[in-house]
Amino acid sequence: MAVVSQSAINQLMSLMDQVDEPLKRTFQNVHQGYKVETLERFLKARDGNVARAHKMLLDCLHWRLENGIDDILSKPIVPTNFYRGVRESQLIGVSGYTREGLPVFAIGVGLSSFDKASVQYYVQSHIQINEYRDRVILPAATKKNGRYIGKCVKILDMSGLKLSALNQIKLLTAISTVDDLNYPEKTITYYIVNVPYVFSACWKVVKPLLQERTKLKVHVLQGCGRDELLKIMDYSALPEFCRREGSRASRRGGNTTVDCFSLDHPFHQQLYNYMKMQSGICEPTRPLKHGSVRVEMPLADPKKAEFCKALATEWKKFQNQDDLSWLHDIKISD
C-alpha cells in the first residue's frame, strides 16, 4: 500500500486551496473538518501521485455538484412501505462497532434480490447510506472515542448466493464504481463469510485481477467467521449471520434481536428519521409519489471491467453445469 508523504499532502492541499467556491463548499461535506485525512485517502487511492489524486478529487466534487449529492439526505425514498421493500431487497445495515470504535457494516450479498425498485432507487439508497456514514456515524464515533475515525469494517455474507446473481453484476459494478471514485479508502477491511463453493471457485480466478491494495483488505473467513471476528469486536456487534455456525447461519432475523438489515433496526430507523427531518416532511397520510434521485453513474475503469468479465465467465461455467445437472440425475436413476 502506498505511503503518502507529507510533501504530497501539502502539494494537494495547495491545489485544493485554489478551487472555486462551489467546489470548496461540497469539499467541506467530504472532509467534515478533517481535510488532511481526506487528502490522504485520495492520494492512497492513486498510489501517492499528486496529479492523479487531484484529478480524482476534482472529478468527485464535480460529480457531487452535478448530481446534488450534498442534498441527497433531504430526499428520502417515500412512502415508507416502498422504502421497506428497498431495504428488504438491498440488504445492508450497521450491526455495531469494533473495539477500536469502527462501525461494522453488514451486507447480505447472497440474499439481496434488488427486485423491488428500479436501479436508480438502489443507487440512491446506497449513496444516502454512504453520506449518512460520513456525515453522521463517523463524526459521532470520532467524538465518542476522542480520536479521528474515518473508516469502517464491512462483513459480506454470501449465504444464499445463487448463479442468478450474475444478473445483478451491472448494478453491483455501478455501485462499487461510485464507491471507488467518490468514497475511496473508507473501508479498512472486508470480511467475507458463509462462502459457498461457487464463490470459492470464482474467487481463485478473480483474486489475481485485484489491485494489491484491495487484496490486502479482503479476508475470506471459514464458516460464519464468528471466532475470527470476535478478535476485533464483541459478540453484540456481530451480525446475525455470523452468530451461528452451520445451516442456521444463513437465516435472517431472530427471536431476541432485530435483524440489522430490517427497517425496524435502530440504525435504519435513525437514518430514515434523519432524512425525513432534513426534508421537512412528516409521514404522509396518503400514498405519496416520489421519484428516485437521478445519479450519473461513472463508467468502471478497464481493470474493473476485466475483473467483471472474468467473474461472469467463471460464473457461467457453473451455470452451464447446473443446467446439465438433470443428465446426471438420469444416469443415477438408471
TrEMBL record:
SMART domains linked: CRAL_TRIO_N (SM01100), SEC14 (SM00516)
UniProt xrefs under CDD domains: SEC14
Extent of the signal sequence: none
Gene3D superfamilies: CRAL-TRIO lipid binding domain (3.40.525.10)
One Pfam family it belongs to: CRAL_TRIO_N
Residue intervals of the CRAL-TRIO domain: 79-240
SUPFAM superfamilies in UniProt: CRAL/TRIO domain (SSF52087), CRAL/TRIO N-terminal domain (SSF46938)
PROSITE patterns: CRAL_TRIO (PS50191)
InterPro entries with a match to the protein in the record: CRAL-TRIO_dom, CRAL-TRIO_dom_sf, CRAL/TRIO_N_dom, CRAL/TRIO_N_dom_sf
PANTHER family cross-referenced by the UniProt entry: CRAL-TRIO DOMAIN-CONTAINING PROTEIN (PTHR46226), CRAL-TRIO LIPID BINDING DOMAIN, CRAL_TRIO DOMAIN, CRAL_TRIO DOMAIN SUPERFAMILY (PTHR46226:SF14)
Annotated protein name in UniProt: CRAL-TRIO domain-containing protein
